[in-house]
Amino acid sequence: MAKSKMFGKDVVTTQELSVEEIENILALAVKMKANRYGEPYNSLLAFKTFIMFFYNPSLRTRQSFEAAATELGGHAQFIEPKAMRLKSVKKGVEVAGETIHDAAKVMARFAVGIGIRILETSVDNYGDGNKILREYAKYADVPIINMADDIYHPCQGLADVMGMREHNNNKPTKGKTLVQTWAKGALARSYCSVHESLLLNSRLGVNVKLAYPDDNYALPENIVEQAKKNAKASGGTFEIVKGDPKAAYEGADYVYSRNWFGKDFYEIGKEAEIKRASSDKYKDWICDEDKMKTANPGAKFIHPMPVDEDAEVTREVNRGPRSIVLDIAENRLHVQKAIMALTMSDKL
Amino acid sequence: MAKSKMFGKDVVTTQELSVEEIENILALAVKMKANRYGEPYNSLLAFKTFIMFFYNPSLRTRQSFEAAATELGGHAQFIEPKAMRLKSVKKGVEVAGETIHDAAKVMARFAVGIGIRILETSVDNYGDGNKILREYAKYADVPIINMADDIYHPCQGLADVMGMREHNNNKPTKGKTLVQTWAKGALARSYCSVHESLLLNSRLGVNVKLAYPDDNYALPENIVEQAKKNAKASGGTFEIVKGDPKAAYEGADYVYSRNWFGKDFYEIGKEAEIKRASSDKYKDWICDEDKMKTANPGAKFIHPMPVDEDAEVTREVNRGPRSIVLDIAENRLHVQKAIMALTMSDKL
Amino acid sequence: MAKSKMFGKDVVTTQELSVEEIENILALAVKMKANRYGEPYNSLLAFKTFIMFFYNPSLRTRQSFEAAATELGGHAQFIEPKAMRLKSVKKGVEVAGETIHDAAKVMARFAVGIGIRILETSVDNYGDGNKILREYAKYADVPIINMADDIYHPCQGLADVMGMREHNNNKPTKGKTLVQTWAKGALARSYCSVHESLLLNSRLGVNVKLAYPDDNYALPENIVEQAKKNAKASGGTFEIVKGDPKAAYEGADYVYSRNWFGKDFYEIGKEAEIKRASSDKYKDWICDEDKMKTANPGAKFIHPMPVDEDAEVTREVNRGPRSIVLDIAENRLHVQKAIMALTMSDKL
User: Is the domain of C79 the same as that of C198?
Assistant: First the structure.
């Protein structure tokens, strides 16, 4: 009966964890994957409650966190704040209700940890989702786990890295090359998975190439600046390849092709973004066999799923031998179990 | 620690199980009912996740599957695909999203089995629900359990038979007579429970009389043809009684009176169907004491519930000593536990 | 393996429990709080299902009951009757569906207990929610626990008392003084928590002062009459202080400041009620430091949460040392565990 050094810690982004903490999570996740339902892991959260708090619905995140709690012997509650009367300001109008202070404090009485998901579509401005999440973290007396906000997605980043290592003979990916490329599609996707990948892989010494068609699909400057700093510190490289959908593939060991919305998304809205990102102008921004051939032999296709098949990537690649998307999806479960165990269990 | 011969098997309809498999499920369900919360059953799915995937909501099905998972030591997740971005075609328009291939493959990473419910109101044409369910079964690497589709409902059929036997001194019902009769009502009910009853009882040597008022309420030809073949093979009889709400009751040991929608439902829609089935024309299509008197002494009233009291059956019969509907409702739990144990547990 | 004397008992209001039963619940809750996840409590409902049946959504109630079931080794199902086809009459029109008789009888086959929440906004007239809850209690063969109806809220009342005692050196509150005061606010709040507090505290010998601005905010006569009778029997006092937002505070040991809707709510509706209760006329009906200074030294602020901060109570008081609202919120969990164990477990 003991607690890890991470006991009680919030997990907002891997950027705010030490490399040692990141490695501890990944090492435990690997052990848990090898011994999925067995002791001692299956009683680490016995009889305990983890609250999943979904400002935005999500299937994958819910399924993996709920299974994680079950496999640790506990239970995850699926809660939607829309069922609550929360004090808030919506488009300038104050809505009466409970403060985040009180909501966080009470939930911490019932649960040993709280996951929060809050994306761009739940807030008015970029970063507000992360701010709200940090407000819960400020007041809750139990760990807050970021289940994806409008900036970060630590569990996805860790699952990516775990999968990339599994397909690198279980070795670290330092010195390998990751292409993180924008893709067309009709889903106006969030930044958070992409941001986390840039930040975490640059941190771990991976050479990162970020590709997108034009400045409107550039990512927020502070994220890019941080990734550059990370690369410098870790001995990796960070490069931006603009305008050419294929150029970045050369020398890639991992290709991460995924849509994200443009800078003007908060003004133009979802419909206009989807129309643009599906237009002919971007028809070549898809990961296909042809482009993959310019990557290194054995290069892998990665993606946080759900995949928008035949938009972000062809069926051939997505379902082919290069694709490790299912392993990465499964790894969400394992890294989340590891995070929950390290931050919430007193039986480690 | 062992697996049954059914381990890994999908359960789409009892028609696709062998009689031996059917008997194995029923035998295990009887044992589980006698030892509801006890060992060894309460750890067969310990720490494991069963996903309940509801295209259509359902209370009874959810309650019984969720309790089943709990009683086997595991946990059932309640998931509604409407929270997902699934690739689909709705009224001719393509909706961007995840393929069933990917959704099935990922869920199989999190869960040891997946239940799917998809009724006529979720699809455009008769049989499309079953097709979608079979597509999940094709790709998922864990068993798919049919929690009711637009054609079949195996768990209901098995619960019916289990109840019929319990009220037949725990003996098989071969040679007994079942009246499966259409009833009036305002709920435009699905075919699946009725189909499964016809198919399964005819398979087990029960003499089946199918009664309905007119050709519009005839059931799909392939189901009726299959039931006739089943009867022939099992030594039972299969008879259709048309136009008379009482005639079929003569000689009945079990009366199953329930509404179902007409052939033209997919064109005319729910409202028109309800209006018609509630009209005076059909006022005598209700199971009542008077009709039950023409059945055999000791004849039982059965129904998959929820009962539309005073439409499908009078309160007197539904709540009277002839009614075994509650036992059958409870049996849903037990047969589902047995199916889950046989197809998903490695501890049998 | 034994059952308590309360095994099988419905819990509709503390008014219908004996003082001995109330004390047994509170005593067990105290023990459970001191040994939250430990034996023998963590297996009292092992593998068993508790159904939470929410006509009205609620976060706190759901979280605390769901955690309670988990901590007792069982599982709570979150069910919303709106997903059911229940027979009902809405504004004079009959809706086809299942009877409460059948729904209650079937749920009792799946679960060892059923919690029901049904507030004023789900029914047409005051008291109809309680009537419906009692109809479930009539037919269900397992205990019905009131998770708040339009009259009563037993779990909240018990959690209040448990918290009041904790902050009275763990001693009974007989002879102490409770001010139950109406407060302004924009949430048109239910009666049930307030009723239960009046009934239960008067029963336990607490001197109760009920304060409100005018006759429109008087509480139903039968509740007030019952509280007066309770006070007489227990040796306490019961007093009404009308029109002055501060006068009642003198001599108070506990101040319970909370909004409730006016007598004409069922006619005027929520919007008009909120407009009135937020108007300048009632601006002084808030619990603040200034008023608290006229209470006894060490007086505590109590509230069932969620708190409408800066309407019902100032942030200073709500988050200050006088506030015991979080302890009371946590106690919901413990008293509910105790109630569930006493009424549903066969292992006590």
Answer: no
Residue C215, token pair as written in the block: 């006759």
Q: Which helix (H) or strand (E) holds C157?
A: helix C154-166
Q: How many A/C residue pairs have CB atoms within 8 Å? A: 77
pLDDT confidence of residue A1: 67
Which CATH number is C88's domain given?
3.40.50.1370
Task: State whether C188 and C250 are in the same domain.
Answer: yes
- With 0-12 / 13-18 / 19 or more C-beta atoms within 10 angstroms meaning exposed / middle / buried, residue B128 is middle
User: Which residues, in sequence order, are CB contacts of A328 under 8 Å at separation 6+?
Assistant: A159, A160, A162, A163, A302, A303, A304, A305
> CA-nearest residue of chain C to A50?
C67
Q: B100 and B86 in contact (C-beta within 8 Å)?
A: yes
From first to last of its 348 residues, chain C has per-residue pLDDT tens of: 699 999 999 999 999 999 999 999 999 999 999 999 999 999 999 999 999 999 998 889 999 999 999 999 999 999 988 767 788 766 677 788 899 999 999 999 999 999 999 999 889 899 999 999 999 999 999 999 999 999 999 999 999 999 999 999 999 999 999 999 999 999 999 999 999 999 999 999 999 999 999 999 999 999 999 999 999 999 999 999 999 999 999 999 999 999 999 999 989 999 999 999 999 999 999 999 999 999 999 999 999 999 999 999 999 999 999 999 999 999 999 999 999 999 999 999
Q: Give this complex's ipTM.
A: 0.96
Chain A CB contacts of B101 under 8 Å are: 319
Same domain flag for C124 and C250: no
Same domain assignment for residues B310 and B181: yes
Note whether C85 contacts B187, CB cutoff 8 Å: yes
Nearest to B103 by CA among A60, A321, A189: A60
- Token pair in block for residue B38: 């006890």
Question: Domain containing A315: what range?
Answer: 168-323
**Residues from C in contact with B at Cβ < 8 Å:** 46-49, 51, 74-75, 77-79, 81, 83-85, 87, 96-99, 101-103, 105-107, 109-111
Which residues are within 8 A (CB) of B42 and not within 5 positions of it... i.e. 6 or more apart?
A: B71, B72, B73, C46, C47
Residues C298 and C187 in one domain: yes
Instruction: Assign 3-class secondary structure to C51-104.
Output: EEEECCCCHHHHHHHHHHHHHCCCEEEEECHHHCCECEEECCEEECCECHHHHH
Q: What is the pLDDT of residues A137-187, one digit of tens each?
A: 999 999 999 999 999 999 999 999 999 999 999 999 999 999 999 999 999
Give the span between the Cα atoms of C208 and C205, in whole angstroms: 9
Give chain A positions within 8 Å (CB) of B140.
Answer: none
For chain B, strand residue ranges (E) read 49-54, 75-79, 88-90, 93-95, 113-118, 144-149, 177-182, 207-212, 238-242, 254-258, 300-302
Residues C252, C335: one domain?
A: no
Domain membership of residue B244 (yes or no) is yes
For the stretch B178-190, pLDDT in tens is: 999 999 999 999 9
* Predicted local confidence at residue C86, as pLDDT: 81
The DSSP 8-state label assigned to residue C151 in this structure reads S
The token pair at B295 is: 């059945």
Cβ neighbours around B129 below 10 Å, total: 27
Is the residue at A306 inside a domain?
yes
Mutate to test the interface with B, among A63, A274, A308, A319 (most CBs of B within 10 A): A63
User: What digits encode the pLDDT tens for the residues A231-279?
Assistant: 999 999 999 999 999 999 999 999 999 999 999 998 999 999 999 999 9
Same domain (yes/no): C103, C191: no
Report how many domains make up chain C: 2
Residue B261, in any domain of the structure = yes
Residue B91 lies in a domain: yes
Give A77's strand partners: A51
Query: How far away is chain C from the Cα of A311, in angstroms, using its nearest Cα?
Result: 36
Q: Within this chain, do residues A336 and A318 fall inside the same structural domain, yes or no? A: no
